[in-house]
């Protein structure tokens, strides 16, 4: 939790295809992988290192998993030791009926606005993937909130070629959206170290 009056860091992360290997765009593997506990190498360690850096750090999870499927994501987060994985009522959220993109825009914006009411010095770190249009959601969130660049950072795990997602977002397009694509958790770790 963030202490008033100091700079805080809040990480808001997707789960499937961001920290958990799910392959949501590959229908032949998604059902099997949804039941699995395979994380992208080093993800839980990185999130725990981030969380352990100080009392002014917090982690939220916003998942596109529909309804009861969230229980698989929760089990994954708990079994792999992710921070805040047991605080289901106030740190882990999933969609009900709206589209994944609309849900993430609404929920992440709501989390950020609520936190800014009491802690105006928060640095927000959004982490998603290129499978369910997290990049477009992050772009919309940034345009709605109009936070300074040093207060809002977005990272997108690049795991699908544009032809596999129908989203047509190339690597170069992320720079235009003020987002940083990453392939490995090590690359993300370097970027988080630069932020603080």
Q: Quick summary of this structure?
A:
Helix content is 43%, strand content 17%.
In the sheet with the most strands, the strands line up as 3-2-1-4-5-6
| Strand residue percentage | 15-25%
Shape designation: globular
Would you identify the regions where 5 or more consecutive residues have pLDDT less than 50? Answer: none
- Which H/E pattern describes the elements? EHHEHHEHEHEHHEH
The total beta strand count reads 6
Largest sheet: 6 strands, parallel
Helix content: 40-55%
Radius of gyration from the CA trace? 16 Å
Q: Supply the number of helical segments.
A: 9
How does the helix and strand content classify structurally? alpha/beta
Cα distance spanning the termini:
16 Å
Averaged pLDDT, please?
82
What does this molecule look like?
- By secondary structure, the chain is α/β, with parallel strands linked by helices.
- The protein has helices at about 25-35, 45-50, 70-80, 90, 100-120, 135-145, 160-165, 170-175, 185-195, and strands at about 10-15, 55-65, 90-95, 120-130, 150-155, 180.
- The chain has a six-stranded parallel sheet with strand order 3-2-1-4-5-6, with helices on both faces.
Key words describing this protein structure:
196 residues; alpha/beta; 9 helices; 6 strands
